[in-house]
């Protein structure tokens, strides 16, 4: 796949405006796509040298997009980062409010979000005990409390409000490139803050958030650019799963503008409104991961027994992404219109290509969830992002021809394989002729004592050549079948037929179904209190039933499993699973206790069967 080539500024601007997305936010969202310039002017710049304290090298008001690329005190391992919510800067600008006043205003902002946004039902009811237990650990650990300071979201709300007071605007940074046969429109959406944890009970908070929506255009038969695919960035999805075909019914459009449902706080982009269950996966050590996968595979797939879904190699913590679309709408025909795009065309602005640092606080989070992101062109480790240097491959389109090219590419591939088939037939014919000659020679030398060595060599050569010819014939049969299918496919494509719009999707973005959202209040309440009650119960057992600890623990686990299955409507499945488990345990006990006797009986039965079978054959003969 070729390197992207930047379009001219005029053409890029016209195409970006023609297909720019419509964003539908969730009620309660406090941060919206904005121009990066006022954000940078509101930030200070810091450097984190390896093994030393972070140093502030520019205070708020000194930075702009023009000078952001200057990275002082650079050295191997140094991390440059912006800070949007520096308390010292918050009190030295604007009206110079006190921290107490800032705190009160921030509290009012959070209360307003609380009145506007209501959580969905059944987050924990949708997952099993193990995930709930990990969720409880996550809630009390440092990771859950976050390395981004607790007041950061409130401070960011106030700083963003100041930006809007200067000039309310809604903007994206646009880039248009040609890569191969595709023209790619990139809409880079910059949010000043990700408040998923503090505002919407999600996994993390972090300063700054770069999200992206891409539209893929191709020339039609008349040479005019038409949209064929779109791809929205969303966590836990990559490649083919990111994109949808333009004619997919899931892709909602307003005229020529795709509609994006933005998840509250996290700003992940979805194709349909709803509530999406997202699991944060924390990897297990390798031996435990392998054991967990094996046990889950045997229990669920081999025995088909009761249990929860999930990856056997991870501890999964459940969260919900709310993409309801009931908040502010931004875009053509919406409540708020986009400002003209901020272009990132060649020659690239210095802030795009020259600044490789983070766009917000470097929290030194070991899982990187609360570290700010890098800019559009880079990853956090300062390598160039694939979405930038290979936007076609980023969405898995590097293997997909445009609709106009599809039939031609199919016929080209058919011709290549057909040419290979011709060569294969010639090889098979030549080798078959040689095999016949060798076979005749082998027959002539067989059973002649003075030619034993030569005959053995000929026999081995005949065997090897025969196996080689069989492999070539098998390959030829497969290739001939592929040629026929490619011919049929080319005919369908030339007739205007296409494969199903969703055939490429392995794991679709799927909002929770009405049934999942319809968990009973009792089940939801049980999910919320079950792990806490279990921990309290185990503590009580340890204090009051220490002499019968093992039995009390088994009884306690059994009771919790019984209540869980009852609330989920899976009591019958649980009883079946318990029966299977008891039967397996009883079998193991019997094998352990009576293994020698069982071995003797097995040998006796086998001997009797062999004796009976041989005598039956003798009598019939």
TrEMBL record:
Keywords associated with the record: Coiled coil, Membrane, Plasmid, Transmembrane, Transmembrane helix
Ranges in a coiled coil: 455-489
Transmembrane segments: 525-543, 549-567, 598-615
Highest taxon listed in the record's lineage: Bacteria
Name of the protein in its database record: Uncharacterized protein
Species in which this protein is naturally found: Rubrobacter radiotolerans (Arthrobacter radiotolerans)
Organism lineage: Bacteria, Bacillati, Actinomycetota, Rubrobacteria, Rubrobacterales
């Amino acid at each position: 796949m070729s390197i992207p080539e930047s379009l001219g500024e005029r053409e890029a601007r016209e195409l970006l405006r023609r297909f720019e997305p419509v964003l539908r936010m969730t009620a309660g969202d406090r941060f919206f796509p904005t121009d990066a310039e006022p954000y940078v002017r509101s930030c200070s710049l810091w450097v984190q040298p390896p093994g030393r304290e972070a140093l502030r090298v520019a205070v708020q008001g000194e930075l702009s997009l023009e000078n952001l690329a200057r990275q002082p005190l650079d050295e191997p391992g140094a991390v440059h980062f912006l800070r949007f919510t520096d308390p010292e800067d918050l009190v030295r600008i604007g009206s110079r409010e006190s921290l107490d006043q800032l705190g009160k205003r921030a509290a009012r902002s959070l209360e307003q979000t609380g009145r506007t946004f209501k959580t969905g039902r059944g987050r924990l009811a949708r997952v099993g005990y193990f995930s709930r237990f990990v969720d409880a650990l996550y809630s009390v650990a440092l990771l859950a409390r976050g390395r981004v300071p607790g007041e950061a979201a409130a401070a960011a709300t106030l700083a963003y409000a100041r930006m809007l007071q200067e000039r309310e605007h809604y903007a994206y940074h646009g880039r248009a490139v040609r890569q191969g046969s595709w023209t790619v429109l990139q809409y880079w959406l910059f949010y000043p803050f990700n408040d998923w944890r503090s505002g919407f009970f999600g996994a993390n908070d972090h300063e700054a958030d770069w999200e992206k929506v891409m539209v893929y255009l191709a020339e039609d038969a008349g040479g005019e650019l038409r949209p064929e695919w779109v791809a929205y960035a969303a966590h836990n999805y990559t490649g083919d799963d990111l994109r949808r075909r333009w004619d997919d019914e899931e892709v909602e459009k307003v005229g020529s503008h795709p509609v994006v449902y933005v998840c509250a706080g996290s700003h992940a982009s979805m194709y349909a409104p709803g509530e999406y269950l997202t699991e944060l996966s924390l990897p297990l050590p390798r031996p435990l991961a392998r054991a967990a996968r094996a046990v889950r595979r045997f229990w669920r797939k081999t025995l088909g027994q009761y249990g929860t879904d999930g990856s056997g190699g991870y501890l999964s913590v459940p969260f919900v992404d709310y993409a309801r679309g009931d908040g502010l709408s931004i875009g053509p025909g919406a409540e708020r219109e986009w400002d003209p795009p901020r272009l990132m065309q060649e020659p690239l602005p210095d802030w795009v290509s020259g600044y490789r640092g983070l766009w917000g606080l470097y929290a030194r989070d070991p899982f990187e969830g609360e570290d700010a992101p890098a800019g559009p062109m880079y990853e956090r480790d300062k390598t160039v992002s694939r979405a930038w240097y290979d936007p076609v491959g980023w969405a898995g389109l590097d293997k997909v021809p445009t609709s106009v090219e599809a039939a031609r590419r199919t016929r080209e591939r058919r011709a290549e394989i057909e040419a290979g088939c011709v060569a294969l037939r010639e090889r098979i014919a030549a080798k078959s002729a040689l095999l016949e000659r060798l076979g005749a020679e082998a027959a002539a030398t067989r059973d002649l004592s003075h030619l034993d060595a030569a005959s053995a060599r000929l026999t081995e050569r005949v065997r090897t050549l025969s196996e080689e010819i069989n492999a070539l014939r098998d390959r030829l049969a497969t290739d001939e079948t592929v040629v026929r299918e490619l011919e049929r496919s080319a005919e369908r494509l030339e007739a205007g037929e296409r494969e199903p719009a969703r055939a490429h999707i392995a794991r679709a973005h799927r909002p929770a179904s009405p049934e999942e959202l319809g968990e009973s209040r009792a089940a939801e309440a049980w999910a919320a209190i079950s792990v806490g009650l279990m921990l309290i119960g185990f503590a009580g057992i340890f204090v009051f039933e220490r002499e019968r600890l093992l039995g009390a623990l088994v009884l306690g686990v059994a009771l919790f499993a019984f209540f869980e299955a009852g609330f989920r409507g899976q009591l019958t499945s649980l009883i079946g699973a318990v029966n299977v488990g008891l039967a397996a345990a009883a079998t193991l006990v019997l094998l352990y206790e009576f293994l020698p006797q069982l071995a003797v009986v097995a040998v006796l039965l086998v001997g009797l069967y062999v004796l009976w079978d041989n005598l039956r054959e003798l009598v019939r003969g």
